[in-house]
Amino acid sequence: MSAPSRLGRYPVRRRIGSGAFATVWLAYDEQLDSPVAIKVLADNWTEDFHARQRFVEEGRFLRKVESPHVVSVYDAGELPDSRPYLVMSYADQGSLADRLDLEPLTVSQAVHVIAQVGAGLHALHQRGVLHRDVKPANVLFRTVEVNGAPQVSAMLGDLGLGKAMDMSSRLTIIGGTPSFVSPEQAQGEPLDPRADQFSLAALTYLLLAGRAPYNHASLNAAADPAPPPPLDNGLPAETEAVISKAMAKDREERYADVPAFVAALSTSLAGHTDEPPTWIPVDPDLTLPAPRPGTSGSLDTDWTTQAPSRKPGAPARLSRKRLTAVGLAAVLVGLLSGFGAHELIVTDRTIEDVSGTISVTVPEAWTRAVDTEQWVPPDAEAEQASISAGTAVGWNQNDDPGQGIFLGVLPGELPPVVPQHPECEVTRPAVTDRRNGDSYMTVEFTDCPHGGITIERVIQVTANRLLWVQVRAEDRSAAIEVLDSVKLSL
Q1: Is the Cα dihedral 79, 343, 489, 54 positive or negative?
Q2: Where do the H-state alpha helices sit in 137-192?
Q3: How far apart, in whole angstroms, are the C-alpha atoms of residue 401 and residue 108?
C-alpha cells in the first residue's frame, strides 16, 4: 500500500515497518518542527474490540510514565475508519537487536544500557505497570545531547504485553519471548515486578556472555528452566552470582526490585568498566531528521508480486549479506510487536495466500518473489493453501540460493522425519512440542555452505492435515521471528 499523505494533523514521510497488528509511520510534527513515529492499528483489527482496547491501553500505560528511558506518547487519535493511532517519540539510532547484529557491546556499554533499561523498568513499576517483554528488539536507541555532545540513550518500547499490576492477578494472555521470559509468566501465574527483573537479568546475560542464557523453543520450556549456564567470559564470580540471583526460578530468591539488581551488578563489575562509562557511539548516518513535508524523497511504494519457480516439496537454501548499517526502517521495531506478536527486526510485510488461510510476516527483501497461489502437495490430488516468498525467483533452488519461506497445507499426520539437508554440517536433533494445542516437529540445520540456517517445521493443525514450513535465513533469530509470525485459519 502507498503511504497516506497525513495521519491526523501529521504529514507522513515513509513507512518505518509493519506487522500483523500495527503499522508504524515516520511523520512530521509541523508545530514542534520534529519527526515523530505514529503507530496505527492494522485495518484487519478495526472491528476487534479487544485488539482496539489493548492498543489504546498501550498508549495509556506509556503516557503514565515520565522517564527518558521509556518511549513517550505525545498524542493519540482516531482515523476516519475508526482505527486508533499513537504519536510516539522517534528512535533515530535503531534497536539493541540492530546493534548486536553489528557487533557485541563492551562490558562498560552493556552495564550502561542495562542501567538505563533498568531505570525505565523502575519508572514503569513505580507507576504500577509491568512491561512483560524485555528483549533486545524492545530496547530502542535515540540521540540525546549530554554536555553539548550527541550520545546514545536507551529506552524501552512496546508495551503491547504491558499490564497494570492491579490486573496481574486476573486471567490474562500468556505472552513473552521464551528465551527471556520468567518461569512464573510462562506458567500464567500472577505477576509482579520481579518478572521484569528476571527478563532484565536474562538480557544482561546476553550482553555479557554474547549468547542468550536459554534457547527455549516455547513458553512451555521456559516454565521450568534450569539455572543459567556459566558466563565463561572471565568476569568476576560475583557478577555471575548477581545474574543467577536475579534469574532465580523462585521469585522470592530474587532482588527486592530492579534498582537493587542494577546496583549489585555495577558493584560486582567494579574495576571492569570505564569511568566515566563508555557510551555507545552515535551513528551519524542515522541522526539525520526526516525531510520536512514538501522536500524531495519518494514515499513508500507498492511491492510487486512474482511467481517463483518453486518445486513442491523441494528444500530451500539461503544466503544474505551481513547487516552493515542499521536502516531507518528498523528503528522502531520494538513498537511493532504489540499484543504479543513476535515481529521482525527490519521493515516487513504481511503476506496472505489467495484463500485467506495462511499469513506470514517477512522482511521486505523477501517479497521480491512471492507466490500466494495454491499448490498440489506430493502424492495428493487436491490443491491446498500455500505461500512462497523469497529474495529472488529461484531462491529455493541450489543454483542461485536466496533466503525466504515456504508454507503449504498438506494431508497427513506428523512424519517420523522431515526433509534433510546433507549439505549442512550440523543437524540439531528434532524437537517435538505443542503450541496453542497443535503438535509440531522442528529440525534445524546450521553451518550450511550458504552460511545461514535452514529450519524445517511440520505442524499437525487438524487430525488429518499438516502445515509444512521451511525457512532459510542468515541467522536463527531472523528465522524464528518469521516462524513465530505464521498464522493459520482452518
Answers
A1: negative
A2: 183-186
A3: 40
Could you give all domains of the chain from N- to C-terminal order, each with its CATH number? 6-90 (3.30.200.20), 96-268 (1.10.510.10), 328-488 (3.40.1000)
Judge whether residue 199 has pLDDT over 90: yes
Helix, strand or coil, per DSSP, at residue 335 = helix
Query: Over pLDDT 70: what percentage of the chain?
Result: 79
DSSP E strand stretches across 114-205 = 129-130, 139-146, 149-156, 163-164
Q: Residue 301 class from Cβ within 10 Å (0-12 exposed, 13-18 middle, 19+ buried)? A: exposed
Please give the C-alpha separations between residue 256 and each of 79, 119, 228, 296, in angstroms, as whole numbers.
43, 15, 20, 53
Are the C-beta atoms of 58 and 336 separated by less than 8 Å? no
Instruction: State yes or no: is 232 an active-site residue.
Output: no
The average pLDDT across 201-217 equals: 92
**DSSP state for residue 226 in the 8-state scheme:** P
Q: Is the peptide bond before 213 cis (omega within 30 degrees of 0)?
A: no
Of 98, 101, 133, 158, which one is the catalytic site residue? Answer: 133
d(CA 343, CA 480): 10
Closest CA to 335 of 73, 15, 132, 39: 39
pLDDT in tens, 98-135: 888 888 999 999 999 999 999 999 999 998 888 888 99
